From TrEMBL:
Sample GO molecular function, one term: chitin binding
The keyword Membrane is annotated on this UniProt entry: yes
InterPro entries on file: Chitinase_II/V-like_cat (IPR011583), Chitinase_insertion_sf (IPR029070), GH (IPR017853), Glyco_hydro18_cat (IPR001223)
Transmembrane intervals: 27-52
Protein name per Swiss-Prot or TrEMBL: GH18 domain-containing protein
Start and end residues of each GH18 domain: 63-402
Keywords associated with the record: Membrane, Transmembrane, Transmembrane helix
Organism: Caenorhabditis remanei
GO terms under biological process: carbohydrate metabolic process
PANTHER family: CHITINASE, GH18 DOMAIN-CONTAINING PROTEIN
Length: 414
């Protein structure tokens, strides 16, 4: 009854208002035109504002832009950390001695959830990275250990609404090779059973280094079961050694390290695996500074020897750009080495040498990915950028994102 009355009243009201409108129609037409003009202007202004504040997101990038985010980083996760990425990977000591994975603290869990929720709003894939070398070997060695871990991973992803997993075992040895590759296959099968598009990746070692680290990976078998491989094409030179050089030189090494380059490593992988579009190179975000640096080695500015003090190399690795700046690296003063395509600063007066990536060296790496039909880059790690996101803001991923890579090997293979 009440409903009927209400409807009747509504109809009456509507009739009255229609009468009123028809009476004022002479005034209504210019008013409507004015309103439409105002609306168009307002929408235009809004679109302008959105574009201005939100440069095009990269989730539709045709190449991968994978950002690692470390739980240990002090940086609060922000939109700027994520807006250029296609995947974000939360890195944490997930692996327990018992061979299961779990958050090691409530703090880590909260950080992950915050990251995940933000990343999902950007349409990114959210993955977890399972690192921590010491337990892997014994877990992989038995069928029971592998099955317990694959079960644990699958239920973790489901429970925590993650989209995939990266395996970052640094590094398996030749005796682990077969069990690791069986594990990757078993994990892929279990992920596929879940009937969700979970992604699986493996981070694997640089080539060309004595001891040949890729020997612990059955690469040809693994590549079949992963969506992509993140190649650890970095740390060719670091603050632990007396020989100074860029962390991730694209080209050009000096004896006995002539093969310590991104290009040598990627040549090795591309020729062996053929599926170049599954391979990603790293962009290291950290910065290194050596002290007591001696004169340059012949024909190069970036390769130098460090003078040891009491047998120890005097050097620091900064996992925070802000800290590096506070300690005295003036990133704006970077010089460029064309042969290695890397940025550096040599301070003649204080005898320090710093090595780091910047706009120019990152663009060289993006061009390299394009040129060699690689699948993308992985950034290690986005939380290391400074408070104004100097590194991430500086790089134009848009051109790089315009074309997909195909599996064409653009290297000379033996
Ligand atoms: C991995 O993720 C992509 C989307 O980013 C999806 O198209 C693909 O199917 C996933 N892989 C698997 C095996 O589900
Ligand atoms: C560098 O790589 C080439 C080709 O694989 C190899 O012949 C050469 O021995 C390597 N050099 C060193 C110093 O390992």
């Amino acid at each position: 009854m009440a409903v009927l009355i209400a409807t009747a009243t509504d109809c009456l009201l509507e009739k009255n208002s229609r009468n009123r409108i028809s009476k004022r129609s002479t005034l209504a037409t210019p008013l409507a035109v004015l309103l439409i003009i105002l609306a168009v202007l307002a929408i235009g202004f809004l679109i302008f504002l959105l574009h201005f504040n939100n440069p095009a997101h990269n989730r539709d990038c045709k190449k991968r832009v994978i950002g690692y985010y470390e739980d240990t980083g002090s940086a609060e996760i922000r939109d700027n950390h994520l807006e250029k990425l296609t995947h974000v990977v939360f890195s944490h000591q997930f692996l327990s001695a018992e061979g299961t994975i779990e958050f090691r603290s409530d703090r880590a869990k909260l950080k992950f959830e915050k990251l995940r929720n933000k990343a999902k709003r950007f349409g990114l894939k959210v993955m977890i990275s399972i690192g921590g070398g010491q337990h892997f070997g014994s877990i992989m060695a038995t069928e029971c250990g592998r099955s317990k871990l694959t079960d644990s991973i699958v239920s973790f992803l489901e429970k925590n609404q993650a989209d995939g997993v990266d395996l970052f075992w640094k590094w398996p040895t030749a005796s682990d090779k077969s069990s690791y590759s069986i594990f990757v296959k078993e994990l892929r099968l279990k992920l596929l059973e879940m009937n969700k598009e979970y992604n699986l990746s493996v981070t694997s070692a640089p080539a060309g280094i004595p001891g040949y680290w890729p020997d612990g990976f059955d690469l040809e078998e693994m590549i079949k079961h992963v969506d992509f491989m993140n190649i650890f094409s970095m740390d060719f030179y670091g603050p632990w050694g007396w020989l100074i050089g860029p962390a991730a030189p694209l080209y050009h090494g000096i004896a006995p390290r002539e093969n310590f380059t991104v290009d040598y490593t990627m040549n090795y992988y591309a020729c062996k695996l053929k599926e170049t579009s599954k391979l990603n190179i790293v962009i290291p975000m950290d910065a290194r500074i050596w002290e007591n640096v001696k004169t340059a080695l012949p024909r190069s500015e970036v390769f130098r020897k460090a003078k040891l003090i009491d047998g120890v190399v005097q050097a620091t690795l900064f996992k925070s750009r802000r800290l590096a700046t506070e300690t005295g690296i003036n990133f704006d003063a970077a010089a460029w080495d064309e042969k290695t395509k890397s940025s550096y600063i040599f301070d003649e007066k204080f005898k320090t040498f710093s090595s780091f990536e910047n706009k120019k060296s990152i663009e060289a790496k993006l061009n390299y990915v394009n040129e060699k039909n690689l699948g993308g880059v992985w950034i290690r790690s986005v939380n290391m950028d400074d408070d104004t996101f100097s590194m991430l803001n500086d790089v134009n991923f848009r051109d790089y994102c315009s074309a997909k890579s195909f599996d064409t090997v653009n290297y000379l293979c033996a």
